[in-house]
Amino acid sequence: xxxxxxxxxxxxxxxxxxxxxxxxxxxxxxxxxxxxxxxxxxxxxxxxxxxxxxxxxxxxxxxxxxxxxxxxxxxxxxxxxxxxxxxxxxxxxxxxxxxxxxxxxxxxxxxxxxxxxxxxxxxxxxxxxxxxxxxxxxxxxxxxxxxxxxxxxxxxxxxxxxxxxxxxxxxxxxxxxxxxxxxxxxxxxxxxxxxxxxxxxxxxxxxxxxxxxxxxxxxxxxxxxxxxxxxxxxxxxxxxxxxxxxxxxxxxxxxxxxxxxxxxxxxxxxxxxxxxxxxxxxxxxxxxxxxxxxxxxxxxxxxxxxxxxxxxxxxxxxxxxxxxxxxxxxxxxxxxxxxxxxxxxxxxxxxxxxxxxxxxxxxxxxxxxxxxxxxxxxxxxxxxxxxxxxxxxxxxxxxxxxxxxxxxxxxxxxxxxxxxxxxxxxxxxxxxxxxxxxxxxxxxxxxxxxxxxxxxxxxxxxxxxxxxxxxxxxxxxxxxxxxxxxxxxxxxxxxxxxxxxxxxxxxxxxxxxxxxxxxxxxxxxxxxxxxxxxxxxxxxxxxx
Amino acid sequence: xxxxxxxxxxxxxxxxxxxxxxxxxxxxxxxxxxxxxxxxxxxxxxxxxxxxxxxxxxxxxxxxxxxxxxxxxxxxxxxxxxxxxxxxxxxxxxxxxxxxxxxxxxxxxxxxxxxxxxxxxxxxxxxxxxxxxxxxxxxxxxxxxxxxxxxxxxxxxxxxxxxxxxxxx
Lengths: 544, 169
Fold this sequence. Notes:
The complex is a heterodimer of chains A (544) and B (169). Chain A is mostly beta strands and 544 residues long. Helix content of chain A is 11%, strand content 39%. Chain A is built from three helices and 32 strands. The longest helix of chain A is centred in the N-terminal third of the chain and has 43 residues. With 169 residues, chain B is mainly alpha-helical. Chains A and B meet through helix 1, helix 2, strand 11, strand 12 and strand 29 of A and helix 2, helix 3, helix 4, helix 5 and helix 6 of B.
């Protein structure tokens, strides 16, 4: 009689599905890889074409200006909702498709929010869905004195389905601070998803800006949702009042086999919290199969008179920083190219400081890392960087052996450099495209790693503090070993130093603490770690 | 064409088995094929860059499982709704295969991974821990729970010590 293990082994083997076709698998994989390379190359060629065309147009404009003649005015295309017709908007560096407006209420000074898609490629028209972009305008969507549409493009997400955009007042404060964009999939495909942005308009003078962040779950996210993952997998969404907290809630729900079930979310600060209620009921067809355009507030409107303008007739003032694509300018940019999203092709991360008005902003509070996932020269997402002093894209290393590399950002330079760790949305992930700080796993604790804070650590050091990072099991099962020693430089307590060691393993997008220890030793004793050197293939000395 | 002999060897000898294993974990052959193929391409890229992978099959299994996790999350909500329904499967497959898949599907993801890696891919406890990105102790406990649950679900009597006990005694 077989043992239980033998029985389980036999039955699992008998039950394992077999792939449908394995003939010429090597050839098919080679073709798959070739297609990806070709797509990436095409994206880069398109970017180069845009740059070249833009340069030629700029030279022509300068030529006209210096000759003193009347500026040539190109007639814009008539406003149109033709699904194949792309519109040209002054101030927008690409043609747009399917423009929509959402009426006001987005904080002080911003009356209208414009949502549209970027033409999928220059000259491609609007048949294919493009990246969804967001712009903010004043009362009529333009600044009267210049005829320009104020804009700061943010919140770039992949649009893949004709889903609605809508304004939400999720915290019931009378201001529609949130924007929901449905993207990807449909009920027929078995999944769909929605991204919730918090919008913060910044209007001043004739330049408008809109900052957005993707609203995320906190540490209480259910495991399937994952820290930092946006609400997803919904077949529809609607607003319901009130939740157990008294706030309106966004219900997202799935339907199948006659059952509709969902989860209620409410907003607390910048975090989405899951309400206690579990929503479940028979599917009687009363819920719209593809969501609704009336989520917690204003319905979407199709503008009848979406403004279009001629090409610029005045030269823009010279701005500091470097244009990194997609309407972003960054000061002191640094870049790194690596395989961040697991699509077998390199992505580019740019780290730098935002431009505010006509100057570089304070880097301590205004630095960010942006990632170009599709090679089109424009960032597809990013993350803000805290406490940045001399930030730089520092290294890329695969810390969880999943074939995609994590980003190491130098947050603070100097003799005790501090590093932060980030991961990209993966190519087949439900996350919105972007970079995400890595945290300790829910419930994990270790000295020197505050709960609910991204994992950072320092190396090098001085008389009172030293840090180091070592690595075990790289590259197959990497474990980061973070060391530190700390003691007063002089006076009471200076003769004893505290040694801390924490072993971290990146699993499921967060760090498990697999070992941690803390002890004291005489300051004069040799340290149990070396302050410099290479670990996990990274030389952690920024001056090296 | 792939010119790395080791990768070609894996495609000939290990590919189908790994797809079957990942499919048992994810519940989707298509998703498993996609994840394994992505992992093979990643290994191929690394090979061309001169990076050495010490244990190619284990590395590809690790990467494929890691990649399959995000895809699983994508359809999780839909499956959760369907999972409560108890309608009999209509696949036309032998009932015992369906029973095994259903029993595996009822396990928590990590128990399911541990069982499949150990029983189907014949990885050691240490290799399973590496593939799952966790400790040997955690693998042992996950495997013991999975074993007990599978034995109950499949109505198999457990009269012998476990392989974990043998291997690690």
